[in-house]
Amino acid sequence: MSLKQFSTSSPALPGSSFPASESRQPVTAPEEEQDRILEVVVEDDGPGFGPEELRHATEPFYRGEGQMEQCHFGLGLYICRLICAKCGGSLALSNSVRGGRVTARFKIFSEKQKSR
Known about the structure:
Layout: E1 2-6, E2 27-31, E3 37-43, H1 51-56, H2 76-86, E4 90-95, E5 100-107, H3 111-114
Antiparallel strand pairs: 1-2, 3-5, 4-5
């Protein structure tokens, strides 16, 4: 298993993607190659997801209670869910002891599988 680490200020992961995180924790992405699945877990130290958000936050244009004034359209997690599904995986929302958690799973294709 290898571990890749990204900073939330990295151009690949804009800081605006993590508005709930107070401490700007680094994002770690363990690469599990068992069963040829890549799993990326992102956690923050914000308030986490409420029950309604856990059910609906991956739907298009969903913005939770009190988020209507924020400058976003409710498409980020929806697009992530579509990409994961297109890659034979899934996107799951949950809460950790520190805050919110998003788990993205992707199927890893070999070069032989890509050429089919």
